[in-house]
Amino acid sequence: MKNLPTAFIFGAGGTARSLLPTIQEEYEVLGFIDNNPLLTSPEWGINLPIFPAEELLKREFDTIILASTPGFESIPKQLIAMGIDRRKININHVIVPVKSRINFLESVGKLFEAENIDGNTAEGGVFQGEFTKHINRIFPNKICYLFDTFKGFDERDVAIEVKQNFSQLVAGHLANTAEETVLANLPYPEKCVIKKGYFPETTAGLENERFCFVNLDFDLYQPILAGLEFFAPRMVKSGILLVHDYFSDYKGVKQAVIEFADKADKKYFPIGDGLSIAFQF
Asked: Which end of the chain is more exposed for a tag (fewer CB within 10 A), N or C?
């Protein structure tokens, strides 16, 4: 049997699950690293432990493989700040989907500017603001409404996930964020409005708002469906509504999109990042 180089996988969510078979062909996987202190083993059933990042300072390994698209930029910075050799940080597995989504957004921004498309922007499922900062950068003159609990997944949404067998995610997952973390990450924070709390309750007062670009990245069936139902009738002509994780193991996301599209008789299309679909209005 061939001796394989050893690796930790940073991130233990849907991206890690989809990448694991490929990674195990090339590496002996020692476990996962995740910044969520609530996780001790992946919620999707693989028998490998999850460690905090500090474990890396105690162990011998050859590579850290990044498997988190939201942490594409922040996690390498975190590891380097810890003293990890940057040559041991492998981002190759996530660079294509991340860059593809950003390229799509930049192309949309150029078209909207050329055509003078009005309306504001929004993101549902902000986490630490890694994609938010690109929305904010590309649409600097538009208000960006940011919807998140900033406490991780809500137990009401998780209960639906489990009941419908969409996922085994737990309440509080992705809680390692805060409004201050997001705003500090943005080039134009003054243009952003934080809507903290349970979605769609946090849409109150925005019934007459109009949107040209919306990104839904809630990961869960109920808020994705609620997001589609709230934003769709408020999209301007030519507006884009993006849904992340359609092509992932988050089955509730796909189900929400299918239900909405059937009911609204609305077509959607992949954007080329291997994860997302988009509606155009």
From this structure: N
